[in-house]
Amino acid sequence: MILKAVIVEDESSSREILRNYLAKYCKNVDVLGEAASVRDGIELIAKTKPDLVFLDVEMPFGNAFDLLDQLPDRSFETVFVTAYNSYALEALNNHAAYYLMKPINIDELIKAVSYVAEIKEKENAMEDKILKSKMTKAEGKITLPQQDGFQVLNVSDILYCKADDNYTEIYLENKKLLVSKTLKYFEEALADYPFARIHKSYLVNVNEVIKYRKGKGGSVIVSNGKELLVSASKKRQLLSYFE
User: What pLDDT digit, counting tens, does each position of 57-79 carry?
Assistant: First the structure.
């Protein structure tokens, strides 16, 4: 698919290098415009409604995270392009699809574009449609430790799990259980079942996902009507469960 893209970068030489690389090595990217500041970047994004934004971190009068904070309902994917690797974690927490270091490695640029194209193709096919997982129903039981012993739960009854510091909230159709185990513990315990880690805070039963929506990082709606955020780094894995 053709990806509509914009470049937000304050250095003209860096914009030129990226633009030329995209023209030569990423034929499916159509660069609609460029901006050199946060303010101009916001205006450009609002005007062009791109699929993909190549975004430098450090810019005059603000940075990439200031720009993203002002676009809370964004539907585009973000590829950070920066000379500073110290921003990697914050970039991921801001739903970056990819993180490129300067000077740009052409192979990594191609991977970033391919990654975003795959996500966008699946998003466009699934947006606001009723989803049906390719996975078979989760048959099995899991033991939940409690202060006075333990509780045995059918895995198929779990809609999703939510992190709560060193605890995990287990959501069933009509109730919630609080268990003194981390979400990582349940991610490993449910590894043989159709559960997907869609966000640092959520582990979801993919058979209970009924809709997918594009947005800041994307989101899913589960069978009880709850909407859960999806991290950009987790999108491809989640969408692979569905046809």
Answer: 888 778 888 888 888 778 899 99
DSSP strand pairing (195-199 vs 202-205) = antiparallel
Please state the domain count of the chain. Answer: 2
- Select from 64, 91, 126 the last residue of a domain: 126
Which segments within the chain are labelled E, that is strand?
Answer: 3-8, 29-35, 52-55, 58-59, 62-63, 77-82, 98-101, 141-146, 149-154, 160-164, 167-171, 176-179, 195-199, 202-205, 209-213, 219-222, 227-229
Same domain, 99 and 153: no
d(CA 81, CA 110): 13
pLDDT score of 243: 60
pLDDT tens digits, 80-97 = 888 877 665 565 555 677
Give CA–CA dist 141/40, Å, rounded: 54
